[in-house]
Every structure is written in C-alpha cells, then in structure tokens.
Amino acid sequence: MAKPGRLTAKPLSLMMGDVLSAAYAKQGFAARELVTRWPEIAGRDIAEHAQPLKMQWPRPVEGQPQEPATLILRVEGPMALEIQHSSDVILERVNRFFGWHAVGKLALRQGPLLRPPVKRRPVPPDPNTVAKVAQTLTAIEDDALRDALARLGAAIKRN
C-alpha cells in the first residue's frame, strides 16, 4: 500500500487567483496589479485620495486599431480638482506600468474611498485592577502565570 504524499498548505493567493482575476476582468482590468499596486503606480500622494474603480474599453471597430481605455477613479470630494489637474501625470504612470498606451483618459467619480480598517492597539489594563485581581490568585505559585492571569482578569473586567 502506497503512502499518501505529504500534504502542504497552498497559499491563499494561488487558490483565489482565478476568482479574483475574473472579478477584476468584469471591471475591465486586464491586470489586477493596477488595483493591488495602485500606491506604487500612481504615487502615495495620489493614492491617498484616489482609487481605480474600473476601466472602460471602447468597442473595437473592425479593421481599426484598439482605442485606449478610460480609467475611472473614485476620488474624495475635495481632492477631485487636484486629481484632475494631475491627470497627465497619472496617465503617464499608468501607461508606463502597462508598457503601452492602454489608458487614454481619466473619468472621476466623487465618493468616499474604501480604506482598510485601522488596527488599534489594545489599552493595557489599569494597574490597580491588576493588583486587586492578583490578590485573589494566591493559590497560583508561578509568579509569571499569576501576573498573566491577573492582567487577563483585569482586561475581562474592563470589557
């Protein structure tokens, strides 16, 4: 009887690659890197206030070369005018990323940007509460364990 091969975990990016590629393709993105690497492509100052929504490709005309796409950006309201003035720079950077004249113009849609939630560090428990909880843990002989349990108990009482 043959032994089964070694099981290894596959990266999530490999398993989700096809699913995400299909979702980005529905929005007109030939390469999802335009969205995932947007801060590198457009620059941090532009990426803080604008995000790519989709690319609209004009219908090809038979016998004619493909016309460049329109990149639609979501822009925070107050920065729309500034982004509009930077449109030549953005177009140059995006086309440099693609390696050809893929995008011919920008269209702006004002709205709030989708930002990842900010991770907050938990506030340490109050030392007085930790001391009170530690007094109830006299049966535990290990000092490190007692201190850890006292901090845990104080954090639970706080919440």
Number of helices: 8
Shape: elongated
**Low-confidence runs:** none
Strand order of the largest sheet: 1-2-3
Compressed to H and E, one letter per element, the order equals HHHHEEHHEHH
Explain what the structure shows.
With 159 residues, this protein is an alpha+beta fold. The chain is 45% helix and 14% strand. It is built from eight helices and three strands; from the N terminus they run ααααββααβαα. The longest helix has 16 residues. The chain is elongated, with a radius of gyration of 27 Å.
Key descriptive features of the protein:
159 residues; alpha+beta; three-stranded mixed beta sheet; 8 helices; 14% strand
Brief synopsis:
With 159 residues, the chain is an alpha+beta fold.
Topology (SSEs and partners):
Layout: H1 12-26, H2 33-36, H3 38-42, H4 44-47, E1 50-56, E2 69-75, H5 80-85, H6 87-98, E3 103-110, H7 127-135, H8 143-158
